[in-house]
Fold this sequence. Notes:
Four Helix Bundle (Hemerythrin (Met), subunit A); three-stranded antiparallel β-sheet
Amino acid sequence: MKIRGAGKIAREGAEAIGHFARTYQGNDLQQFMEDLNDAMQELLSSRPTAVSLWNGVHSSVAGVKDADNVDDARELIIKQSQEFIKESEESIRRIAEIGAKRIEDGDVIMTHCNSSVAIGVITEAYRQGKDIKVYATESRPWRQGILTVNDLSKEGIDTTLIIDSAVRLVMKKVDKVFTGADTVTSQGNLINKIGTSQVAICANEARAQFYVCTETYKFSPMTVTGDLVKIEERDINEVVSEGEIPSNVKVFNPVFDVTPAKYISGLITELGVISPGAVYGIMERKFGKELMKE
Ligand code: RI2
């Protein structure tokens, strides 16, 4: 939890695998591949839900199995990890430009948790001179909404913090919702911070538009062949302090939830705004034959 936000997690994963390649000592190619595999597994198991990490690490090592020697393999990983980081940062800038066009003067916006990509979109619209108001959810248990209201108010944006259970009441005033993404499935479903699906259902009921701000490396190729996204569960100490509740009471602390595609008005990506139904087509272009499994 020192590193938060699916995009940042992906860039740090790419940086870590680049660091592994930069500092690796030894010339035995087979040993290198084994050590690389161990390093990848350790990184990937740290955050199982955000596919951004998987894509950041895998695109850094793409093609490395064809390397003739350790030096070539190291060079390729270092180059590709830096490329991934650069492209990821460029994607956030592009999404801000594209997404800001969806925001009109006078819009009341809601956002959930702390997404650097969604904040980028909202901030860009404000910098363009649009008069906007933002409601940001607290996002229990880690309260990342506090980060969000700090980021938005620093920009001068009219920002209101609400508790998560106030979402439905407040939604009556909201025109558009902008959230981030941890993972997007091939069917266009969204996996994002717990509570996102409630926000989406309330938006649907109140006829507010619900936009997902996401780089395409948050699209999960594994979901094409039916793999389910593993929802991370975290320690109960995030929810209650020791001794606060009887020891025979269980606490369930899931970190993410699934928002069905039918509640999503559009996904704002670095390639443009797409409907949830267009996600698979983008995946085909991005991952090609890798999507097929035997
Ligand atoms: P950016 C965060 O979760 C939130 O769910 C947020 O919407 C998502 O990552 C995307 O964040 P976590 O991975 O990449 O920090 O837009 O638990 O910053």
